[in-house]
């Protein structure tokens, strides 16, 4: 008959129980314990009954039952483990006082403090990550703007060189300085110059836009 305190469905538990018996069984009781108790539940049960036929075995099984209860308790508490550390007397007194003020245990208060510290560290880490990311974005933005400024200057020089070349060709063709224009021709020339400037500005904007689109620093 299976002992009521032993759970056959929990293989981890009864295998652990078999290991417990194997490691604590005296030489005089070794013949009561099956070598296959840790792999065969029925053999473990028979071993327990055999051990209970001896006074020493009864005490061993009682210790096993207590050990199983303690193991279940530890597992039910989320895998808690006893820790031992030394605190200064003043710190210990403060911890006890704070636990009393917060109507909790010293252990629970320590857990809360650690969880709070972990949360603060996580927030600080995220803030540092965002700050680094923002610094990188600002750096890339400034670098991109410097590159675009250079593109504007280079394109302006290119357009200016083209205009100067055209003007030089006209001067060379006329073999003399440009003649004085009438008011009507001056207005027409000004309108034409304005039109050419718009074309130049459009060429500059196009060069900047193309460079901005292809730049790896573009945001």
What is the terminal separation in angstroms? 75 Å
Round the mean pLDDT to the nearest integer and report it: 82
Shape: rod-shaped
In total, the number of domains comes to 2
* Poorly predicted sequence stretches spanning 5 or more consecutive residues: none
Give the class from helix and strand content and strand pairing: mainly alpha
Radius of gyration: 45 Å
Residues in β-strands, percent: under 5%
Question: What's the helix count?
Answer: 6
Main pleated sheet = none
Reading the helices and strands in chain order gives HHHHHH
Share of residues in helices: over 70%
The number of strands is: 0
Short summary of the structure?
With 219 residues, the protein is mainly α. Helix content is 74%, strand content 0%. The chain has helices at residues 11-24, 41-51, 55-76, 89-101, 106-174, 183-214.
Blueprint (SSEs and pairs):
Elements: H1 11-24, H2 41-51, H3 55-76, H4 89-101, H5 106-174, H6 183-214
Protein model, in words:
With 219 residues, the chain is mostly helical. It folds into two domains: 11-76; 106-214. Helix content is 74%, strand content 0%. It contains six helices and no strands. It has helices spanning 11-24, 41-51, 55-76, 89-101, 106-174, 183-214. Helix 4 packs across helix 5 (106-174). The chain is rod-shaped. The relative contact order is 0.05. The model has no long low-confidence stretch (mean pLDDT 82).
Q: What labels would you give this structure?
A:
2 domains; mainly alpha; 0% strand; rod-shaped; 219 residues; 74% helix
């Amino acid at each position: 008959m299976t002992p009521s305190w032993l759970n056959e469905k929990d293989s981890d538990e009864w295998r652990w129980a078999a290991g417990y018996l194997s490691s604590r069984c005296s030489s005089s009781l070794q013949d009561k314990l099956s070598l296959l108790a840790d792999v065969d539940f029925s053999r473990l049960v028979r071993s327990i009954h055999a051990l209970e036929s001896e006074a020493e075995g009864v005490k061993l099984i009682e210790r096993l039952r207590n050990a199983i209860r303690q193991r279940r308790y530890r597992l039910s508490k989320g895998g808690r483990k006893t820790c031992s550390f030394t605190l200064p007397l003043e710190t210990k007194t403060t911890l006890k006082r704070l636990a009393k003020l917060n109507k909790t245990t010293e252990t629970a208060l320590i857990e809360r403090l650690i969880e709070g510290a972990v949360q603060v560290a996580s927030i600080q880490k995220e803030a540092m990550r965002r700050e680094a990311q923002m610094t990188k974005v600002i750096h890339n933005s400034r670098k991109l703007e410097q590159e675009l400024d250079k593109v504007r200057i280079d394109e302006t020089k290119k357009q200016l060189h083209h205009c100067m070349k055209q003007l030089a060709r006209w001067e060379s063709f006329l073999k003399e300085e440009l003649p004085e224009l009438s008011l009507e021709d001056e207005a027409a020339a000004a309108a034409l110059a304005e039109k050419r400037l718009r074309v130049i500005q459009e060429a500059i904007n196009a060069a900047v836009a193309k460079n901005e689109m292809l730049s790896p620093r573009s945001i």
